[in-house]
Design a protein that fits this description.
alpha+beta; four-stranded mixed β-sheet; three-stranded antiparallel β-sheet; 12 strands
Protein backbone atom coordinates (compact mmCIF):
# COMPACT_ATOMS: atom_id res chain seq x y z
CA UNK A 1 0.00 0.00 0.00
CA UNK A 2 1.37 3.42 -0.98
CA UNK A 3 2.41 6.02 1.63
CA UNK A 4 2.92 9.81 1.38
CA UNK A 5 5.74 12.15 2.37
CA UNK A 6 5.24 14.43 5.38
CA UNK A 7 5.93 17.87 3.87
CA UNK A 8 4.64 17.85 0.29
CA UNK A 9 2.42 14.77 0.23
CA UNK A 10 4.40 13.01 -2.51
CA UNK A 11 3.13 9.51 -3.25
CA UNK A 12 5.47 6.63 -2.35
CA UNK A 13 4.29 3.36 -3.92
CA UNK A 14 4.82 0.19 -1.92
CA UNK A 15 7.34 -2.42 -3.06
CA UNK A 16 4.49 -4.64 -4.28
CA UNK A 17 2.74 -1.88 -6.29
CA UNK A 18 2.94 -1.61 -10.07
CA UNK A 19 4.45 1.59 -11.48
CA UNK A 20 1.71 4.11 -12.22
CA UNK A 21 2.68 6.94 -14.57
CA UNK A 22 -0.06 9.11 -13.07
CA UNK A 23 1.61 8.85 -9.67
CA UNK A 24 4.95 9.96 -11.09
CA UNK A 25 3.34 12.88 -12.93
CA UNK A 26 1.45 13.92 -9.82
CA UNK A 27 4.64 13.99 -7.78
CA UNK A 28 6.38 15.98 -10.52
CA UNK A 29 3.58 18.57 -10.55
CA UNK A 30 3.80 19.03 -6.77
CA UNK A 31 7.59 19.49 -6.90
CA UNK A 32 7.31 21.94 -9.80
CA UNK A 33 4.70 24.02 -7.98
CA UNK A 34 6.75 24.18 -4.77
CA UNK A 35 9.93 25.11 -6.61
CA UNK A 36 8.07 27.93 -8.32
CA UNK A 37 7.40 29.44 -4.88
CA UNK A 38 11.12 29.66 -4.05
CA UNK A 39 12.81 33.03 -4.80
CA UNK A 40 15.39 32.96 -7.56
CA UNK A 41 18.30 35.39 -7.44
CA UNK A 42 18.96 37.24 -10.68
CA UNK A 43 22.28 37.69 -12.40
CA UNK A 44 22.83 40.88 -10.34
CA UNK A 45 22.56 38.90 -7.11
CA UNK A 46 19.23 40.50 -6.18
CA UNK A 47 15.71 39.17 -5.88
CA UNK A 48 13.16 40.52 -8.38
CA UNK A 49 10.79 43.17 -6.99
CA UNK A 50 7.73 40.93 -7.33
CA UNK A 51 9.26 38.54 -4.78
CA UNK A 52 10.00 41.21 -2.17
CA UNK A 53 7.50 41.78 0.66
CA UNK A 54 5.41 44.95 0.66
CA UNK A 55 6.64 47.08 3.58
CA UNK A 56 5.14 50.37 2.49
CA UNK A 57 2.79 50.46 5.48
CA UNK A 58 5.29 49.08 7.97
CA UNK A 59 8.11 51.64 8.02
CA UNK A 60 8.29 55.42 7.82
CA UNK A 61 9.21 57.11 4.61
CA UNK A 62 12.87 58.01 4.22
CA UNK A 63 13.67 61.16 6.20
CA UNK A 64 10.36 61.15 8.06
CA UNK A 65 12.00 60.82 11.49
CA UNK A 66 14.44 63.66 10.82
CA UNK A 67 11.62 65.89 9.64
CA UNK A 68 9.62 65.17 12.79
CA UNK A 69 12.58 65.91 15.11
CA UNK A 70 13.35 69.15 13.27
CA UNK A 71 9.74 70.28 13.55
CA UNK A 72 9.76 69.45 17.29
CA UNK A 73 12.98 71.33 17.99
CA UNK A 74 11.84 74.48 16.20
CA UNK A 75 8.38 74.48 17.74
CA UNK A 76 7.78 77.29 20.23
CA UNK A 77 5.64 74.98 22.33
CA UNK A 78 8.04 72.03 22.61
CA UNK A 79 9.82 71.94 26.00
CA UNK A 80 8.78 75.51 26.62
CA UNK A 81 9.75 75.36 30.30
CA UNK A 82 13.31 74.35 29.41
CA UNK A 83 13.59 77.16 26.89
CA UNK A 84 12.48 79.65 29.53
CA UNK A 85 15.13 78.47 32.00
CA UNK A 86 17.87 78.49 29.37
CA UNK A 87 16.98 82.02 28.37
CA UNK A 88 17.49 83.23 31.93
CA UNK A 89 20.84 84.88 32.52
CA UNK A 90 22.73 84.91 35.82
CA UNK A 91 23.10 88.40 37.30
CA UNK A 92 26.42 90.08 36.60
CA UNK A 93 28.80 89.87 39.62
CA UNK A 94 29.49 93.09 41.53
CA UNK A 95 33.18 93.98 41.80
CA UNK A 96 34.42 95.93 44.83
CA UNK A 97 37.40 96.49 47.08
CA UNK A 98 35.55 96.36 50.40
CA UNK A 99 33.07 93.85 51.86
CA UNK A 100 29.40 94.37 50.88
CA UNK A 101 26.98 95.79 53.43
CA UNK A 102 23.23 95.69 53.91
CA UNK A 103 23.11 98.79 51.71
CA UNK A 104 24.87 97.05 48.80
CA UNK A 105 22.07 96.56 46.28
CA UNK A 106 21.84 93.12 44.69
CA UNK A 107 19.50 90.30 43.78
CA UNK A 108 19.29 86.85 45.36
CA UNK A 109 21.97 84.61 43.86
CA UNK A 110 24.17 87.49 42.73
CA UNK A 111 27.88 87.43 43.54
CA UNK A 112 29.96 90.18 45.07
CA UNK A 113 33.74 89.87 44.59
CA UNK A 114 35.96 91.68 47.06
CA UNK A 115 39.20 91.98 45.07
CA UNK A 116 41.15 93.39 48.00
CA UNK A 117 40.39 90.54 50.43
CA UNK A 118 39.97 88.03 47.62
CA UNK A 119 36.61 86.90 48.95
CA UNK A 120 33.38 86.02 47.15
CA UNK A 121 30.00 86.83 48.69
CA UNK A 122 26.54 85.63 47.67
CA UNK A 123 23.35 87.62 48.09
CA UNK A 124 20.97 85.37 50.04
CA UNK A 125 18.18 87.84 50.77
CA UNK A 126 16.94 91.14 49.34
CA UNK A 127 14.29 93.05 51.25
CA UNK A 128 13.23 96.59 52.00
CA UNK A 129 15.22 96.49 55.23
CA UNK A 130 18.48 95.67 53.46
CA UNK A 131 20.45 93.04 51.63
CA UNK A 132 22.10 89.95 53.11
CA UNK A 133 25.52 88.93 51.80
CA UNK A 134 27.24 85.73 52.94
CA UNK A 135 30.88 84.98 52.27
CA UNK A 136 31.61 81.85 50.30
CA UNK A 137 34.35 80.10 52.29
CA UNK A 138 34.38 76.59 50.80
CA UNK A 139 37.76 75.87 49.27
CA UNK A 140 39.45 78.79 51.09
CA UNK A 141 42.08 77.93 53.71
CA UNK A 142 42.64 79.89 56.92
CA UNK A 143 45.89 80.67 58.76
CA UNK A 144 45.77 81.14 62.51
CA UNK A 145 48.64 82.10 64.82
CA UNK A 146 48.24 80.88 68.39
CA UNK A 147 50.22 79.79 71.43
CA UNK A 148 50.05 76.32 72.96
CA UNK A 149 50.25 77.14 76.66
CA UNK A 150 52.07 74.66 78.87
CA UNK A 151 49.39 74.96 81.54
CA UNK A 152 46.59 73.94 79.13
CA UNK A 153 47.90 70.43 78.44
CA UNK A 154 45.95 67.69 80.23
CA UNK A 155 47.56 64.86 82.17
CA UNK A 156 46.75 62.65 79.14
CA UNK A 157 48.93 65.01 77.07
CA UNK A 158 45.95 66.42 75.14
CA UNK A 159 45.30 70.02 74.12
CA UNK A 160 42.06 71.45 72.67
CA UNK A 161 42.22 74.22 70.08
CA UNK A 162 39.01 76.13 69.35
CA UNK A 163 38.49 77.98 66.08
CA UNK A 164 35.31 78.70 64.13
CA UNK A 165 36.99 77.79 60.82
CA UNK A 166 37.59 74.20 61.88
CA UNK A 167 35.06 71.66 60.64
CA UNK A 168 34.67 67.96 61.36
CA UNK A 169 36.38 67.11 58.08
CA UNK A 170 38.80 69.99 57.39
CA UNK A 171 42.51 69.17 57.25
CA UNK A 172 44.50 70.97 59.96
CA UNK A 173 48.27 71.49 59.74
CA UNK A 174 50.40 72.49 62.74
CA UNK A 175 53.56 74.46 61.95
CA UNK A 176 56.16 76.38 63.99
CA UNK A 177 55.30 80.09 64.26
CA UNK A 178 56.31 81.85 61.05
CA UNK A 179 58.55 84.87 60.63
CA UNK A 180 61.07 83.77 63.29
CA UNK A 181 58.35 83.84 65.93
CA UNK A 182 59.69 80.78 67.77
CA UNK A 183 62.91 80.29 69.75
CA UNK A 184 65.27 77.36 69.50
CA UNK A 185 64.14 76.05 72.88
CA UNK A 186 60.49 76.26 71.87
CA UNK A 187 61.30 74.53 68.57
CA UNK A 188 63.00 71.70 70.46
CA UNK A 189 59.98 71.39 72.77
CA UNK A 190 57.64 71.25 69.76
CA UNK A 191 59.79 68.60 68.10
CA UNK A 192 60.02 66.53 71.28
CA UNK A 193 56.26 66.65 71.82
CA UNK A 194 55.56 64.87 68.51
CA UNK A 195 52.09 66.44 68.26
CA UNK A 196 49.40 64.79 66.12
CA UNK A 197 45.75 65.50 65.50
CA UNK A 198 43.15 63.72 67.61
CA UNK A 199 39.40 64.09 67.94
CA UNK A 200 37.99 66.77 65.62
CA UNK A 201 34.56 68.43 65.48
CA UNK A 202 32.97 71.61 64.21
CA UNK A 203 34.85 74.48 65.84
CA UNK A 204 37.59 72.49 67.58
CA UNK A 205 40.39 69.97 67.27
CA UNK A 206 42.19 68.02 69.98
CA UNK A 207 45.97 67.79 69.72
CA UNK A 208 47.81 64.84 71.24
CA UNK A 209 51.48 64.79 72.28
CA UNK A 210 52.91 61.38 71.50
CA UNK A 211 56.26 62.43 72.96
CA UNK A 212 57.00 64.70 75.90
CA UNK A 213 54.28 66.95 77.26
CA UNK A 214 55.47 70.53 76.66
CA UNK A 215 56.58 72.38 79.76
CA UNK A 216 56.84 75.77 78.05
CA UNK A 217 54.54 77.87 75.91
CA UNK A 218 54.98 77.16 72.18
CA UNK A 219 53.94 79.68 69.48
CA UNK A 220 52.59 77.86 66.42
CA UNK A 221 50.70 78.49 63.20
CA UNK A 222 47.61 76.47 62.22
CA UNK A 223 46.66 76.06 58.58
CA UNK A 224 42.98 75.11 58.39
CA UNK A 225 42.44 73.78 54.89
CA UNK A 226 39.17 73.70 52.98
CA UNK A 227 40.51 72.32 49.68
CA UNK A 228 40.58 68.66 50.72
Amino acid sequence: MATYTTNYNLKKPADSDFINIADLNGNADIIDEELKKRPVVGSDGKLPNNLLPDLSNTYEKKGAAGTAVSAHNTSTNAHNDIRIELDKKAPVPIIGTTPPTTSTVGVVGQQYIDTAAKLVYHCTAAAGTGYTWEVYSAGRSSKVNLTLYASSWSTEKKYTVNNANITATSAVELLPRENNGITQAQMEALSGAMIVGGTQAAGSIQLVALGDKPTMDIPVTLIIRRDL
